[in-house]
């Protein structure tokens, strides 16, 4: 039930049926009712207010475009799934952009004239190995491991960038190191 101006309660399914028939005002009522909820779902994943606001707009567009395929399977669950998937996709895209930017920095690297070609080759090979192994690390630790070890950011820089406390960064790095010790052999990196 959605309470609308004038104190009336309207069944969500009734609004969905109206939207499917072309009533855009009915969709506005759905948006007004669920916008706070969708924002919080997106914010819980993205941890950034502006990104969550942008995501909420995109999510409602996806909901509107997907409504013809909706088949009464629990509206709130259905929109939560759309919101969650969209926010995760946004987070992945942001991570890939950061990764591509850092890779381009390494690609543009010029060896000092006093450094041998072999040293440069082995360093690049080592970095490529580390980058490829980063994908094996659980996703919840990957950002902090990448930021700390590859981008050489401080705990505070990572906390500010991910919008979390420095203690959270310390905890994630501790758990990531523990995971790496349990899952990787030292010989893999020699």
TrEMBL record:
<comment type="similarity">
    <text>Belongs to the sigma-70 factor family. ECF subfamily.</text>
</comment>
<protein>
    <submittedName>
        <fullName>RNA polymerase sigma factor (Sigma-70 family)</fullName>
    </submittedName>
</protein>
<dbReference type="GO" id="GO:0003677">
    <property type="term" value="F:DNA binding"/>
</dbReference>
<dbReference type="InterPro" id="IPR007627">
    <property type="entry name" value="RNA_pol_sigma70_r2"/>
</dbReference>
<dbReference type="Pfam" id="PF08281">
    <property type="entry name" value="Sigma70_r4_2"/>
</dbReference>
<dbReference type="InterPro" id="IPR013249">
    <property type="entry name" value="RNA_pol_sigma70_r4_t2"/>
</dbReference>
<dbReference type="GO" id="GO:0016987">
    <property type="term" value="F:sigma factor activity"/>
</dbReference>
<keyword id="KW-0238">DNA-binding</keyword>
<dbReference type="Pfam" id="PF04542">
    <property type="entry name" value="Sigma70_r2"/>
</dbReference>
<dbReference type="GO" id="GO:0006352">
    <property type="term" value="P:DNA-templated transcription initiation"/>
</dbReference>
<keyword id="KW-0731">Sigma factor</keyword>
<dbReference type="InterPro" id="IPR013325">
    <property type="entry name" value="RNA_pol_sigma_r2"/>
</dbReference>
<keyword id="KW-0804">Transcription</keyword>
<feature type="domain" description="RNA polymerase sigma-70 region 2">
    <location>
        <begin position="30"/>
        <end position="96"/>
    </location>
</feature>
<dbReference type="InterPro" id="IPR014284">
    <property type="entry name" value="RNA_pol_sigma-70_dom"/>
</dbReference>
<dbReference type="InterPro" id="IPR036388">
    <property type="entry name" value="WH-like_DNA-bd_sf"/>
</dbReference>
<dbReference type="InterPro" id="IPR039425">
    <property type="entry name" value="RNA_pol_sigma-70-like"/>
</dbReference>
<keyword id="KW-0805">Transcription regulation</keyword>
<feature type="domain" description="RNA polymerase sigma factor 70 region 4 type 2">
    <location>
        <begin position="129"/>
        <end position="180"/>
    </location>
</feature>
<dbReference type="InterPro" id="IPR013324">
    <property type="entry name" value="RNA_pol_sigma_r3/r4-like"/>
</dbReference>
